[in-house]
């Protein structure tokens, strides 16, 4: 068979003629599609035929996808770690940094103060806990998305907005469920600002586990009133009154336990509520923008061209995007998802640091919402949004870019 033949049909050798005809060629399930020419050399992209279908349930695919996802999350978080530290301080209304909220100048000033007080390490405070959490979190999120997507979206005809949204949301919830306690540890480490009170990871764990709310004041006051009334109408000794109060306090502490693993899930409800739109919209936006960039009229400019088929490119069902367009897809995904989920993120942060401020009372979602509204009104739910954009947009862009390139390098 001659080099310019596929099967029994001879293909034209002129590059322009090939491009105009949209000729595809290849064997063993690979289709090499002509997308343009450069210096009279045919530039092609590789598509995958049905015979090259990837088994997404195989162990090999699972660990490779998980590794790519974990590396993507770690790289993205490292890039934005200083902004993340400042954002947490703003969201949780840290007294030392509350005066800086509301402007870019405040963000810069806060970062400068942290750097002067603690050096560069201060800007990365809590980052070790971040990496400890983000690697399994991102690995599970991307892996779960691929697996859930393969079940919900079996072919191109099922590629709908709702199915993509559900796939992303379920992937986000799955990853949060398994890694949330590590997120609480990260936030608590980042929230600390006193130079003379540096806590180790183990001490933070013990502190969170042993935190407990004080007995509700209205219960104790009603008990004290009852004892006082009893003492005034009879000869009940003061010792008996004190014993009654102690018993009441003990009973209340049994209802409101001093410690427990539940403390590591503070803010879990708003996290789940926020993750539904955040992860779902993030994956939906990224995939949708990617589809736009892969339209036939744009593909020759936006997708990665190859002059020779490679096994890694041939394993992709969609042509990989060039770096600028992959970053744009991720950036838009970060912007949209951050916008729709930010108020719930503020509520979650306040709940997570509940034991580090005030009386240690474990705030519920409703109570936290009321407190934020009472303190700052509607604006309180958008505190730090600007810095949120500055953090999330590049973070999600880097995350998707590293993930896609990681899959490419790992051959998945």
- Shape call: globular
- Record the strand order, biggest sheet: 3-4-5
Rounded Rg: 28 Å
Helix count, per DSSP?
A: 16
> How much strand?
5-15%
Uncertain runs: 1-32, 41-51, 217-221, 233-238, 248-258, 308-316
Roughly what percent helix? 55-70%
- Round the mean pLDDT to the nearest integer and report it: 75
Question: Can you characterise this structure?
Answer:
With 412 residues, the chain is mainly alpha-helical. The chain contains 16 helices and 5 strands. The protein has helices spanning 15-21, 59-79, 81-91, 104-118, 120-123, 127-152, 161-191, 201-210, 217-233, 238-255, 268-293, 296-302, 311-314, 323-352, 365-376, 385-410; strands at 5-6, 9-10, 24-25, 30-38, 41-48. A 3-stranded antiparallel β-sheet has the order 3-4-5. Strand 3 and strand 4 form a beta hairpin. Helix 3 packs antiparallel against helix 16 (385-410) and helix 11 (268-293) packs antiparallel against helix 14. The longest helix has 31 residues, at 161-191. The chain is globular. The protein starts with a strand and ends with a helix. Mean pLDDT is 75; it is low at 1-32, 41-51, 217-221, 233-238, 248-258 and 308-316.
